[in-house]
Amino acid sequence: MAPEAPRDKESASDGDSGQEEAKRPDSEPGAETGGAAGPRSDRGSAGRVPPDVRGDWNFFLQTFHGMDARGSVFGVGTPGSGAAELGPRSYGRMGEAEVAKVSGHFAEPSCFAEIRAELQTERVVILVGPGGTGRRAAAITLLDQVKAAGAPIVALAPGTTVDQLAARTFDAGVGYLIADMIDADMSQENAEFHWDIACRAVRDAGTYLIVTAASGARIARSAAARTFTWRRPAASDVLRKHLGRAVVAESVVDEVACALEHGATLGKIAETGQRMATATPEQVADLIAALADNDPREVADWLDKVDAAIPEVLEVAALAFTAGLSERLVDQELRRFRTEIAKFAPEVDPTKDEVRKEIDLRFRQVRKMRVEHPLLAVRDVPLAELGSIPIRHLDFAKAGYRSHVIAELWQRLDTDFWAAIRWWVHEIADSGELSLMSSAATGLALLAQRAPDEVIERYLDPWTAESGSWNEQIMALLVIDQMSAFGDMGTLALQIVVHWATHGSRSQRLVATYAFSGGLGARFPVDATRRLTHLADQGEPLAGHGHAVLFMTLAGQNADGALVLGELQRRMNRQRDRPSTDRVLDSVVFLLGICNPRSGRPAIAEFLMANPDRGGAAAPLWARAFVMRPWRERAGATLLAALATIEQGQRDQDGQRNPKPLVRQIGAAIGTALPPEERAGLRPDLVAANQRSKRRDRRRGEDDGPVGERGQEAATGPGTNPGGSGPTRPAVSPELLEVFLNACAHPENRELG
Fold first, then answer.
1. Is 416 left (phi over 0), alpha (psi -120 to 50) or beta?
2. Does 202 lie in the same domain as 283?
């Protein structure tokens, strides 16, 4: 079992007391920068949970999933580029094709044979080293060479703890991998005890286990298994592996390898080799020129030239946290940042006339000077709401400049400068302007690559403290979301939030609940599902519905949503008293009815349409809710909403609308899960509810006109629940409902209907 998080000393009713309440700010349209999380907040009233749990989730969904932050980089981004780099899937059984693709092109370094011999003998090894060096690829290749023929390789979630490993069973001959395993929040002695048990279990089962971790991880100091320091294979060897049978001159390979040898990740080298294999000589020449990464040198040379002069450095530093926004907004923030000039340049007295004149003159000319600035670029971005009139947006001339500017400033400037940055970014967090907050969050995520302690201690900890405001909590979530999207920062983000969930304050557990339901949960769905269950069991009010929001996040992400459905089924089966059963069923019905804020469609319908082979995944949840009479009506409403969406959206391979096979499968699965005596009673209830929905739609159409081309009204807000009291409850055609009811009544005969 995972270590139990400490409970609060306050009673469970504290969250409902008037003194503790802190209602979230109304979700009014924000500033023209793309909406606002809320007005400047009272810093003493944050971190508490309002009594309206569903309303709180709806506000969260409107803020994150319904946000209109034009020009922002919220939710996605790699250092300097703004493109998502989520990395390989972190859990589950690996397909044979995926394993063959990795192991067939892996260049074995000199230490590989020694590691393989140790794995064959002791069955457990640990590979430590920096990210991007090929630790995961090496582990997959090693396991593929030693596992039993035909046995799979199974990736376990990076948040798997040593006590969970010690408690699990292992299948003989299988290869197990934990990539980027995070440190458990337990003492070294306790961790060593569980790790020793886990290693013995692996050896007794006749299986194999490889763990990869950062160099400073505590598991690397364990005596139960041998640790190897991993180093990336030579770039030339990796290139030749990926060139395959392509004929490329050795001198060209060596030239490309020289350009990639320092700083390039194994993935980047592999991608380059694949491009070279199909490139013409001219394209290879262009590729070599592009590989000459001069961005760090160009940034460093410019900083050397200006010698940290104000306001040149001030402008570039401000842009590192506001890149991609309108020039007017950047100038506004730059002006606010200037007021703190004395904090990071004590020798400059802005009250002196000559100093003020110099600064003002240079700032009055700043827009003219940007045209020739070597690091900056002004781009015209047309905005639809302004008749496509272009608006000047300020960004870096090259995508990579942003991360290099932050890195150079961190290495060059002292604590006075970073104190001013800290004051300014905290002001941004308190502003509630989402596009500005999300751009600043990207800057902090880039800073975390160089100074994670600075970001955690100076920003994330204060924002998630009991005294933190709602806007500051939103800012912390934005930073975590950005870190989750950076390939090499996701594990650190997971470790931070796991610590909040297990050993954090009340407000940190709240923020952890939100984080596991969003981008972090999309990156690490197994860990997020487990941790939300743990938080719900600990009494966190929002965690139960957090499963629903996580499911909505995962609904379009392959079949990952099935993890949440399975977890809720297990939680439901564990309950032994009525109050706890009702709490879980409330979460179940909320999940079955939650809508995607962007499409307005039930997430469960989107999941089933994207994964028709899992038509029965939610059947046990619906069946249990139907049996428990207080939940029957709400569950029926969610089912009808899902069927109506499937009727309008499900297509066959030819693109023709064909919802019957999926609806028949859903009906048979629910009928199988229901007790036989309950199947007949479901028909009149669903038919009556569907008739009420049709009458309601007819009246609404007479009052308000057409309801849209899908034949149903859009959801009234983020997370709208068709099973609740809201107005949206679309009707199903009688013919399709009959298909469902026949399949439900006779699940053993799927041809009925």
1. alpha
2. yes
Cα gap 445→478, rounded to integer Å: 9
- 3-state SS assignment for residue 723: coil
Q: How far apart are CA 276 and CA 273, in angstroms?
A: 5
Do 306 and 219 fall within a single domain? no
Q: How many domains, the chain?
A: 2
- Specify whether 173 is located in the same domain as 200: yes
85 or 15, which is more confident: 85
Q: By the 8 A CB rule, do 211 and 178 touch?
A: yes
pLDDT at 20: 33
Assign residue 156 the CATH number of its domain.
Answer: 3.40.50
Closest by Cα among 171, 174, 176, 169 to 150:
174
Q: For 247-284, give the secondary structure using H, E and C.
A: CCCHHHHHHHHHHHCCCCCHHHHHHHHHHHHHCCHHHH
Same domain, 356 and 306: yes
**Structure-block tokens of residue 565:** 């459905």
Q: What is the pLDDT of residue 597?
A: 85
For residue 286, the one-letter residue type is D
- Both 271 and 326 in a single domain? no
Measured CA to CA, the distance from residue 642 to residue 172 in angstroms comes to 42
Query: In this structure, is the dihedral angle defined by the CA atoms of residues 214, 218, 221 and 223, taken in order, positive or negative?
Result: negative
Q: Directed axis angle between helix 629-649 and helix 676-704, to 10°? A: 60
| 537 close to 546: Cβ distance less than 8 angstroms | no
CA distance 552 to 540: 20
What does the pLDDT look like over 216-228, one tens digit per residue? Answer: 888 888 888 999 9
Cis, bond preceding 311 (omega within 30 deg of 0) = yes
Burial class (CB in 10 A: 0-12, 13-18, 19+), 304: exposed
Model pLDDT for residues 448-490, shown as the tens digit of each residue: 999 999 999 999 999 999 999 999 999 999 999 999 988 778 9
Pair of tokens at residue 511: 């923020």
Q: At what angle do helices 470-485 and 434-450 cross, to 10 degrees?
A: 50
One-character DSSP codes across 157-210: PTT--HHHHHHS---TT-EEEETTPPPPSS-HHHHHHHHHHHHHHHHHHT-EEE
Taking a C-beta distance cutoff of 8 angstroms, is the pair 428, 474 a contact?
Answer: no
Q: Is there a domain that residue 261 lies in? A: yes
Position 679 in a domain:
no
How far apart are the C-alpha atoms of 536 and 519, rounded to whole Å? 19
- Co-location of 221 and 333 in the same domain: no
State mean pLDDT over 268-274: 88
Rg (CA), the chain: 28
Which residue among 292, 311, 336 closes a domain? 292
Which is it for strands 124-128 and 208-213: parallel, antiparallel or unpaired? Answer: parallel
The position carrying tokens 């002069």 is 309
Between helices 295-306 and 401-412, what is the axis angle to 10°? 50
Q: Could you tell me the residue range of the domain that residue 97 belongs to? A: 88-292
Inside any domain, residue 126: yes
| Domain membership flag for residue 665 | no
Residues 311 and 285 in one domain: no
Q: What does the pLDDT read at residue 53?
A: 56
Of 529 and 348, which is predicted with more confidence? 529
Say what the pLDDT of residue 387 is.
66
Q: Is 188 exposed, middle or buried (0-12, 13-18, 19+ CB in 10 A)?
A: middle
What percentage of the chain's residues is helix, strand, coil (to nearest 5)?
55, 5, 35
Pairing of strands 389-396, 376-383: antiparallel
How far apart, in whole angstroms, are the C-alpha atoms of residue 615 and residue 477?
Answer: 33
CA separation for the pair 3, 193 (Å, rounded):
14
Pick from 412, 431, 450: which residue ends a domain? 431
Q: Kindly state whether residues 322 and 184 are assigned to the same domain.
A: no
How far apart CA 753 and CA 591 sit, in angstroms, is 28
Q: How far is CA 142 from the centre of its chain?
A: 29
